[in-house]
Amino acid sequence: MNFETQPQETYATLRIYHAELEPASMTGLFEVKPTKAWKMGEEITVENHGSSAIFEAKTGGWLLSSKHAIRSTDAMKHIEWMMDTLANHGNTISKLQKDGYTVDLVVAWFSNSWNTCPALTPELMTRVANLRIPLWFDVYLDQPMDLSLLD
Amino acid sequence: MHQIDELGEDRTLERATGPERVRATFRVYHPDLEPEKITELLEISPSVAWRCGDDAYGWRKRPGHKAPSGGWLLSSRTVIRGNNAITHIDWLLDQLIGKAGTIKELQDKGFMIDVVVGWHASSWNTTPALTPDIMRRLGKLSLPIWFDVYLFGSEEGELI
Prior knowledge:
Number of domains of chain A: 1
Helix content of chain B: 25-40%
Strand order of the largest sheet of chain B: 2-3-1-4-7
Largest sheet of chain A: 5 strands, mixed
Radius of gyration of chain B: 17 Å
Largest sheet of chain B: 5 strands, mixed
Distance between the termini of chain A: 30 Å
Largest interface: A-B, 50 and 45 residues
Oligomer: heterodimer
Radius of gyration of chain A: 16 Å
């Protein structure tokens, strides 16, 4: 990669959603504590631009973020950490998807320029594809960085 | 995309991923690149190609600008209508079916090869997405991918 691809801040979040999601069951399946998890109908506090608001969750959620595990502005290091963490859980993810759970990987990308270049290597894409997880780049340009779900 | 969505709703890949304009470009660069040879190897006509040192090269064809390297580009920009990035990348990868060996040989010889998705949006926040199938296809072709994201119509220094 011979272009500047590093943002000011980046992290990857595995997101699992389902109306009947039980956070404790999900934690047991993945053998790792989530960064954030909730049941449908629970009240959730959302921080945004220094203020907070409480919402009733319309579905259950289980989120695992690289934000506090990886200190790097290289998005691929965050995705690699997530792939390492999920390495032995391909069957679990596949079963959850068959049962109607939404599973995806969001790469938050905060840059202070008008133009930015998130990138992926073929090797890393193959790892993500083998776990059958769709990947998003959630790109924020020239924005304050307190939009994080996971502060 | 807003946090409330992330917390409160199931979202599918179809939602909130559409830019104002998108295109995918397969790019080959090398100082010694000869466009006709790449065309012959890949059995595809490029959208645009040039030799190192050519004047008025590439898409812009600005007189007085000499190419620092040879280039061979195949773009979806004039072929695929619509702003679904996956459709543009799919079309590009369809053109390269059966060429994994050729691409690998060129990479081994030092040719820089990648796929760039130009993504132009008019919002503060935008969301390029990749499906597992697209990522697997890119992986099998040994192709790195970039999202070249532009907001509010700025195209200064556009890569493709």
